[in-house]
Structures
1.
Amino acid sequence: MYEGAVQELIDELGRLPGVGPKSAQRIAFHILESDPEDMSRLASAITTVKEKVKFCQVCGNVTEQETCNICRDPRRDPTMICVVEESKDVIAVERTRSFRGRYHVLGGAINPIAGIGPDQLRIRELLSRLSDEKIEEIIIATDPNLEGEATATYLVRMLKTLGINVTRLASGLPVGGDLEYADEITLGRAFEGRRSLT
Amino acid sequence: MYEGAVQELIDELGRLPGVGPKSAQRIAFHILESDPEDMSRLASAITTVKEKVKFCQVCGNVTEQETCNICRDPRRDPTMICVVEESKDVIAVERTRSFRGRYHVLGGAINPIAGIGPDQLRIRELLSRLSDEKIEEIIIATDPNLEGEATATYLVRMLKTLGINVTRLASGLPVGGDLEYADEITLGRAFEGRRSLT
């Protein structure tokens, strides 16, 4: 409907995740009406990220060097690996300040419908780390949904023969939540995982 | 939380309208994982739109030339002007195929709280069109909300001394809607604007 460049921009924006046709139009007009300098900063942020950002050769996290900040940090415990699906999950765990080991980013979870099996994930890289590094515990922190649980089960089955301590993040009631509104699976898990207070 | 370029991209994306911190992160990772060519197309679409797209010197609509497609089109009725708030509204009216005249884009609506008065809108440009062109009817198609109504009232008061036929789009029940769910103002307007069928 629009003339050339505006329509092209709307089309490109509409391909981004979570951006429908209406938002794409709204963002396109925001870009049109914004300060040219701000918008060239946005355009160059996109280009720069594609040029500079790579994936850590050790853990698969995003980085601008060969290995990421966390893998390079000598203060991190090298005997523990927290296995997550995505780089975003690394940030989520880091925010808790509960974990001082290193990570392994799988790049997704097992999802047969989407055609993602173990070979599409960075599981081979995890195994080679286990033979190279002295790992004592692997914490599986994949998402607590169908795909994440399937991936956790697959990893446990593969790792338990190696004599490494494999753990999984606790499932249970979210802090600040209402017991009444918890779904039955979560509440069931909270019962199974109940802890002694005495 | 992220290293340099990724965080910069998330920050820039987070400034776009309707993009919160979580969506900005999601879009940034989508960009990271996408084909570099697709993403350089997105970046250049942003740059191109800022370089090429201007506002029509006659009506204020977006265009890549001095005047827009519609103002240049000799088949459009030059005696009718449809006054809208934004370029997006031009597209919305065009989609109806109900109007074959030309447009005037105000660039917003009167909104004292946001500091937008008549001087911030392209009302002076509209008045100069009325003295230059032979206009017979002005259709006011500002949004049917507080700001749009205020703008319509202001325009009507200013234009009625000039002897031009000024009309406003009908308010009433949206087609395909339920009478039961119509708000009382809309239903009231539908009564006021009822039409004889005999």
Note: Strands of chain B lie at 54-55, 62-63, 80-84, 102-105, 137-140, 165-168.
2.
Amino acid sequence: MHQLTVADVVREHRRSRAHVTALVDGEHRFNYAQLDERSNRLANALVAAGVGRGGRVLWLGVNSFRIVELLVACAKIGAVLCPANWRQSSEELRFVLEDLRPAVVVWEAGPLEAALDPIRADAPGRWVCHNGDGPDDYESWLAAHSADDPESPVSEEDPLLLLYTAAFDGHPNGALLAQRALLAHSMMLGAVRQVEEGFVCLDSGPLFHVGTMMFAVTTLVFGGTNVVLPTFDPELACLLIERERCQAAVLFPAMISQLVEANRGRRFDLSSLRFAPADDDWNSMITVDTSPWGRSLAGYGQTEVGGMLTYHALGLNGVGASGRPSLLVQVRFVDLDDHEVPDGEIGEIVARGPHIFSGYFNRPELTTAKLRGGWHHTGDLGRRESDGTISFLGPKLRMIKSGGENIYPAEVERALTGHPDVSGAAVIGRPDPVWGQNVVAVVVLEPGREVSGDDLIAYTRDRIASYKKPKDVIVVEEIPRRGFTPDYDLLDTRYGGGGYPGGQTNQQG
Amino acid sequence: MHQLTVADVVREHRRSRAHVTALVDGEHRFNYAQLDERSNRLANALVAAGVGRGGRVLWLGVNSFRIVELLVACAKIGAVLCPANWRQSSEELRFVLEDLRPAVVVWEAGPLEAALDPIRADAPGRWVCHNGDGPDDYESWLAAHSADDPESPVSEEDPLLLLYTAAFDGHPNGALLAQRALLAHSMMLGAVRQVEEGFVCLDSGPLFHVGTMMFAVTTLVFGGTNVVLPTFDPELACLLIERERCQAAVLFPAMISQLVEANRGRRFDLSSLRFAPADDDWNSMITVDTSPWGRSLAGYGQTEVGGMLTYHALGLNGVGASGRPSLLVQVRFVDLDDHEVPDGEIGEIVARGPHIFSGYFNRPELTTAKLRGGWHHTGDLGRRESDGTISFLGPKLRMIKSGGENIYPAEVERALTGHPDVSGAAVIGRPDPVWGQNVVAVVVLEPGREVSGDDLIAYTRDRIASYKKPKDVIVVEEIPRRGFTPDYDLLDTRYGGGGYPGGQTNQQG
């Protein structure tokens, strides 16, 4: 009786908000009664195609309202939806298919076909084209099945959403978010964003990413309207904000600049949009959001916590840049032995609570390791500040041990990039017979600037503990990277790194 | 790893909000670090006194910060706190003691002793006086136990709060609210009230009632400050609002009038208080609350749902007076056979979801009956309106069957009291050989008014279905009552009622 699933929430919306618009996408517009009915048909279609409880449904396409209705359909039968990153190569998509073994793949004809063609022929599972018009297309498939609620046995602990992330070994891992996790995260995000009745959100980022998905799910949970943008297009975004009176959107600074540009001459009325302030042009086009979330979009999060673990909005005047935790989690900072470190000291951020993920799909050992002791080990470093607020410092990756002291590269790198002449830094440990390891800084300078290694060492010594300061500084033109993080293995090879505690030398954390 | 208890929330607050004031009460002022430590000591004291998981702790006194810290202490060991209605007679308190069998009773010396004296002598359990100064007083008891977290095995499904309510047979029943229920309800209320960081709430109503307790718990969950008023005193309330910069309070219209009166001459600065508007005096003293909750405090609730089941704030412009359900519940309207009735028809309000109660303490049969089929049967009647919003109509009590049709007295009574000359109405069913029963209205007229029975019958026929209209109208001076509801059994005896379906004749619903 105390259980609640995403399906239950939509069932209630069908009754209490039947005529409220749930989804808008191009010509498509459905209210909650229609969403509930369509998700019933879809759920029955998925079951007929062999998707059982725990079965996987893969979405291969750009943003679409169908991702949301498939999510609700999966919620009704205890299945798992994976909206894949459509920007991936054929090889990457093949990996996802082989890893996920979906019983149903909903795919998109058109520009994405080039990447799909090499794998579609020999791939198992039922493939449904969502934008085709053949006899086997999505709408015919949906219409051919009963509108009755399947009323399958489903638990709120069943995983519902799978998002690939965390490519620890070069291949991504599928983080599983349970029905309850999505609801819990939505309640917290909705409280911080002060979502009210009649909320309309423009899903303007990719739904395969938790940053957009968390807003889409929160909008669904609060009975609001998801306006889906297939891919980001500033002109279309302006048009939809005006036409649908969107109150929220998922926007990064570069996207805001594009919207301001697209709205030169004030062709569109964007005043319904309540968003964090940016430049004067932006602030005068929109309504500045005064909710805690609007006052600061910052915080710390990752896919594995359902989106946001901490909100700067909960500690706006605090010391820590990442604010305070969601009210539905506990956060600790631990050392390598999983002992809690004192406030002010750096440790790995670990967390527990209802919106933490349920592990990685098909990775029992990794899951056991990440969730050891009943706490999710984020793989990120942070610190509890003197006022209880939290600072996220960077990925853990690896640790340097010098003179018996633990030194995290992220902390030294942050100190180095605080110097006005330094534009980038990566820190490695070099074996030393006396100290175990010495800290070595690899830095990139701002164009046209010059600064000596000794000056940089002196600069860091004023900002972090002396034992953490670099013993050597190497100036380079560019720091090699793997994705967003420095390629530490390559840096070790080039600059003599090694001797890490716990055999981390070859770990890309 | 996904579990979360009220104790966990306070454990996190100790880390993230150590220096935030948690409790203010007279000379007492404790921050979250102190609350966490005191609740550890209390939890260890309770265990030493024999309170195990599921054990009961009874509070017999007016409002105090100690109710909140005892709640946290109970949360840490899986025990149940019952803050009893201190206005009860000795006999009523004796019933509570015998029903609850608490291992620990925390009681208050002073004005309440007169009621407690007759039962204290022979009552079992350890009695601790919270405002005495003997060797066995509360503070000495607390201080004598370890400040270490007991770290007992506790589930979020464990009942934590017990509130007596629902005196179906003349004696109250203790509704059990689980740890998770309190957290879920707090997230929803906090979202509707738009509780932000730094929230300060004046607990100005009785903490033995869910209406005040739900705000105290929400304030605790959001890491805010509970300012506890022992009993309502308008002058002290004004002083505390000014001194503590209270943002919220639990106030009914009569209390608002008293505050306005106490603040004639604007002796106090009440501008920190964000509350729903009332008269001009009030509105100019406070800051009018623009949150959804501030726009309408209405809704439908009861102790058994954790407080509020529906919020008018979620359907402000809707047809139904009670708005829409909390996002964390499902609501249905069912007939006597538990079949869902169509929209627009009256049925019993049933509900499920994480903030519904866990049953009545020590009432297995009643609990089974109320929670049959996995839905809580509220015992109240309501209707889903055409736009999906909800109207609460009144207590179910009993049903009249006439010509095969179901007629709920509350609906006919509501129609009758809509007449300008009618001040009160109670409706019974009188056995009839043809129709099964006929509707009989017992009405009280406004002073000095006169209206014929035929006119009243015609009046109701224009407002409700014809088969529901009274066949007979009896004008009386006063309607006999049991508590707030008409004494239907006595009315049956006096005016020939009987023949109710399902043998309801002697049921005071």
Note: Chain A is about 30% helix and 25% strand.
